[in-house]
Amino acid sequence: MTLNRGFVQIYTGKGKGKTTAALGLALRGAGAGLKVYIGQFLKSGRYSENISIHSLAKNIVMEAYGNDRFICGEPCTEEIRLAEEGLKKAGAALLSGEYDIVILDEINVALALGLIREEDVAEMIRMRPKTAELVLTGRNAPASIMDLADLITEMKEIKHYFSCGVEAREGIEK
């Protein structure tokens, strides 16, 4: 199966569920026989979703472009290098024609942190094959990137247990 037409989707906002929604789309697509590529920015690959994707889905390729620390303040040279390298890999996957769905998880955060350039992401969106579905996740999606999207969903936090000191739990948030 291949898509007759693909769209650009953005999942953004301060609420929980952006990555989860994108992964749900990946599983749905894989179940329909679509080939899926997921590039995770700012992550090292040590999240529960990586384990399950690798063990369950033969039609999904997942790579992580980050290190093992949460970026606070100015990103280091290595974090910038990993993000730029990841963007090149994701761009190659998108343009290869091998994948029906390409998910760029947390790319909006990578943009907000200055790890990659908006112009480069915008160019990737403009150059994508018209049959490829492209999904960008992460808080603070830039207006210039949202202008290029066909669908934007904003996750709004109404109440979250993180505000009470609960940390990310394995299998639920990581």
TrEMBL record:
Its EC number is 2.5.1.17. One of its GO terms (biological process) is cobalamin biosynthetic process. It catalyses: 2 cob(II)yrinate a,c diamide + reduced [electron-transfer flavoprotein] + 2 ATP = 2 adenosylcob(III)yrinate a,c-diamide + 2 triphosphate + oxidized [electron-transfer flavoprotein] + 3 H(+); 2 cob(II)alamin + reduced [electron-transfer flavoprotein] + 2 ATP = 2 adenosylcob(III)alamin + 2 triphosphate + oxidized [electron-transfer flavoprotein] + 3 H(+). Required for both de novo synthesis of the corrin ring for the assimilation of exogenous corrinoids. Participates in the adenosylation of a variety of incomplete and complete corrinoids. GO terms for molecular function: ATP binding; corrinoid adenosyltransferase activity. Pfam families: CobA_CobO_BtuR. Pathway: Cofactor biosynthesis; adenosylcobalamin biosynthesis; adenosylcobalamin from cob(II)yrinate a,c-diamide: step 2/7. It comes from Geovibrio thiophilus. This is corrinoid adenosyltransferase. Belongs to the Cob(I)alamin adenosyltransferase family. Keywords: Transferase. The keyword Acyltransferase does not apply. InterPro entries: CblAdoTrfase_CobA, P-loop_NTPase.
